[in-house]
Amino acid sequence: MAPMPEGHQGEGFFATSLNSVIGLARKNSIWPLPFATSCCGIEFMATMGSHYDLARFGSERVGFSPRQCDLLMVMGTIAKKMGPVVKQVYLQMAEPRWVIAVGACASSGGIFDTYSVLQGIDQVVPVDVYVPGCPPRPEAIIDGVLRIQDLVGKESLRRRNSDNYKALLESYGIQ
């Protein structure tokens, strides 16, 4: 059970801020969209299995439609030709949306320092959490999701309308 947000409690009532309630609801109902291209995707499959069970953390529903998901999990080697596809998937997601780069290849290109491999997905979309490893263990992927949950729970409702956030998106060519 999720801990109660800070607030005032009395006989038969509980009062808190709207930010806290919405943050708690978002934090415990993240819908991930896996964008897996190689071995990190296999580790993600293990993470969703019964032994590790990512569903314990509110990520029960793994979606494959960007319009229904709010967490883009990019896993594995991304070729430069796939960069625009990753960006298109990101743009099709509704706000608020978050991104995890899972593994060395998605974070920095990994061992593939070649002309055809994107040296980190942060060249095409803003990344919120990086999960290290080649491939990362399921525990590391779960830790990345927990870090996203911390970000989601503490995020202000007005952050997405701030000038800093708009400037960040404009630096990626996103309106």
Describe it.
With 175 residues, the protein is α/β, with parallel strands linked by helices. The chain has one domain (30-171): Rossmann fold. 35% of the residues lie in helices and 14% in strands. It is built from six helices and six strands, in the order E-E-H-E-H-E-H-E-H-E-H-H. The chain has helices at 18-27, 39-48, 83-92, 103-108, 138-154, 163-171; strands at residues 8-10, 13-15, 32-36, 71-75, 98-102, 129-131. It has a four-stranded parallel sheet, sandwiched between helices. Strands 1-2 form a two-stranded antiparallel sheet. The longest helix is centred in the C-terminal third of the chain and has 17 residues, at 138-154. It starts with 7 loop residues before the first strand and ends with a helix.
Pattern of helices and strands: EEHEHEHEHEHH
Q: What composes the largest sheet? A: 4 strands, parallel
Low-confidence stretches: none
The N- to C-terminal Cα distance equals 38 Å
Question: Which CATH class?
Answer: Alpha Beta
Shape: globular
Q: Determine the structural class based on helices, strands and strand pairing.
A: alpha/beta
Number of domains: 1
Range of strand content: 5-15%
